[in-house]
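Key result, reporting period 2: structure in, sequence out.
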C-alpha cells in the first residue's frame, strides 16, 4: 500500500481496495459458480484469452467432455453473462453495468492456466487507505507514530516456517493485481480448511466499484526464494509448488463495500475478507490445509492494543524497493490508530513493507497463548515506515462464520 503523508493507502499489490460501511451487518459476498475454463493463451502479466470448457460440478460425462449444469448457466445469465463470451475474454469488460457489485453477485469462473508463472510475476500491487468488538478505552485514540521496523526476508523454503502464507492474484480494471493472504482454520472442517484470510480491498473495489475477477490463491509462492531473474524462466511448479486455488466464494464487510476507497483510509477498520477456495485442476481429495500442512486459528477477542506484546506481519511487498517475489516479515509491539472516532481503532506497527503486502496475516499470541491471526495489513503511508490493520471483532467474525457455514455440509 501507499499513501500521501496524510492520505493512507492499502498495502495490496497491484490492487486498489476499499472498505467500511455504515451498516454493522456483515457483508456477505457471494456464491461463486465453479466453472472450469481452459485457457489457450496467457500473456505475460497481460490478459489471457480463455478457450475452454466449463463445469460447476467438476464432473465429466462419459465421453470425457465437461459440461455446464443448466442451473449454473442460468445463474450466470441472470447477471447478463454468456459463458461462451466470458471464456473468450468477456471478463475483461469493466463497464459499470457489467461490474458486479452486490454481496450476492460474486461470480468467479475458473480459467485453467490463466495464472501462469509469467502472469503471476508481472502482477502489480493495489494501493489502499484506512471492526467490531469491545474497543472501550481505545476508541478514537491514536498513539505516536511508531519507529520504522526494517522488514526481514523470510529464509527459504517459506513453507518450513510460514506454511500458511501466500499470495492472492486477481484482475481489476487497472490490470493484473496481487495481495498477500493466510490460510485460516475452518471450524466446520477441523484440519481440512479451504479458507483464506486477506484484505477486503483485495477482493472488492469498495464504494467505487465491484468484485474483482479471476481471484486465485497461491500458497508458499516462490517457496525457494528464486531471484527475479531466475523467475523469468521459472516453471509454474516452481512458483506455485502447492498449486493454484481459485476462490469459489468470497465475502467482505458491508462497511468495506459501502465506504471502502483507494486512499485516505476510508473503510480501513473493516478492510478484511475471507475467501473459500478450490484447486484449479479439480479435487485431489485433499483440502488446502492438508496440502500445505497448517492453518491458523483466528482470534476475534484479542486483547486491547496496549496489552498486546508483539505482532508479526507477513507479506510479499511489491512496491519499491521490493519486487513482490520475496516473503518478508516485521515484528513490533502495536500502537493505536484512529481513522474516524466513530469507527473501531486499528492496530499499527512499525514496518517498511510496501504495496503488495496488503492482506498479509498479522499473528500474535491468542487467548490461549498460541499463535493466532489477529489482523491483516490494510493501509500505510506512501513513504512506508508503518502498517495498520483492523481489529477483528463481531463484524469480522460474522464474515468468517458465514463462509464456514456456507460450506459446512460439503
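The corresponding designed sequence is given below.
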Amino acid at each position: 500500500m501507499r499513501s500521501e503523508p496524510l492520505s493512507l493507502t492499502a498495502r495490496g499489490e497491484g490492487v486498489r481496495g476499499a472498505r467500511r460501511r455504515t451498516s454493522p451487518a456483515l457483508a456477505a459476498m457471494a456464491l461463486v459458480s465453479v466453472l472450469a475454463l481452459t485457457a489457450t493463451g496467457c500473456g505475460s502479466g497481460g490478459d489471457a484469452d480463455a478457450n475452454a470448457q466449463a463445469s460447476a460440478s467438476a464432473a465429466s460425462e462419459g465421453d470425457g467432455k465437461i459440461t455446464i449444469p443448466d442451473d449454473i448457466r442460468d445463474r450466470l445469465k441472470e447477471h447478463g453473462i454468456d459463458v461462451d463470451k466470458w471464456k473468450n475474454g468477456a471478463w475483461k469488460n469493466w463497464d459499470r453495468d457489467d461490474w458486479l457489485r452486490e454481496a450476492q453477485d460474486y461470480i468467479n469462473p475458473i480459467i485453467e492456466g490463466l495464472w501462469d508463472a509469467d502472469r503471476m510475476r508481472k502482477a502489480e500491487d493495489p494501493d489502499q487507505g484506512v471492526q467490531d468488538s469491545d474497543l472501550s478505552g481505545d476508541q478514537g485514540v491514536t498513539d505516536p507514530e511508531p519507529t520504522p521496523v526494517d522488514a526481514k526476508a523470510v529464509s527459504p523454503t517459506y513453507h518450513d516456517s510460514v506454511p500458511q502464507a501466500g499470495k492472492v492474484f486477481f484482475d481489476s480494471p487497472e490490470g493484473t493485481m496481487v495481495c498477500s493472504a493466510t490460510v485460516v482454520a475452518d471450524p466446520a472442517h477441523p484440519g481440512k480448511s479451504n479458507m483464506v484470510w486477506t484484505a477486503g480491498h483485495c477482493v472488492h473495489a469498495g464504494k467505487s466499484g465491484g468484485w474483482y475477477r479471476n481471484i486465485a490463491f497461491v500458497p508458499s509462492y516462490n517457496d525457494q526464494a528464486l531471484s527475479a531473474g531466475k523467475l523469468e524462466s521459472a516453471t509454474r511448479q516452481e512458483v506455485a509448488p502447492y498449486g493454484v486455488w481459485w476462490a469459489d466464494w468470497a465475502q467482505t464487510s458491508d462497511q468495506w463495500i459501502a465506504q471502502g476507497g483507494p486512499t485516505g483510509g476510508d473503510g480501513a477498520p473493516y478492510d478484511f475478507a475471507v475467501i473459500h477456495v478450490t484447486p484449479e485442476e479439480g479435487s485431489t481429495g485433499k483440502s488446502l490445509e492438508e496440502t500445505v500442512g497448517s492453518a491458523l486459528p483466528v482470534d476475534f477477542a484479542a486483547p486491547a492494543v496496549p496489552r498486546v506484546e508483539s505482532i508479526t506481519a507477513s507479506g510479499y511487498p511489491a512496491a519499491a524497493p521490493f519486487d513482490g517475489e520475496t516473503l518478508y516479515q516485521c515484528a513490533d509491539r502495536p500502537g493505536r490508530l484512529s481513522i474516524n472516532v466513530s469507527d473501531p481503532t486499528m492496530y499499527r506497527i512499525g514496518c517498511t513493507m510496501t504495496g503488495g503486502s496488503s492482506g498479509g496475516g498479522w499473528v500474535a499470541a491468542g487467548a490461549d497463548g498460541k499463535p493466532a491471526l489477529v489482523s491483516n495489513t490494510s493501509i500505510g503511508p506512501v513513504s512506508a515506515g508503518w502498517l495498520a490493520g483492523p481489529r477483528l471483532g463481531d463484524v469480522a467474525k460474522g464474515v468468517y462464520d458465514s463462509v464456514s457455514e456456507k460450506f459446512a455440509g460439503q
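Residues 1-7, 13-66, 129-137 have pLDDT under 50 and may be disordered. Residues 394-406 form the longest helix (13 residues). This case is discussed further under Risks and Mitigation.
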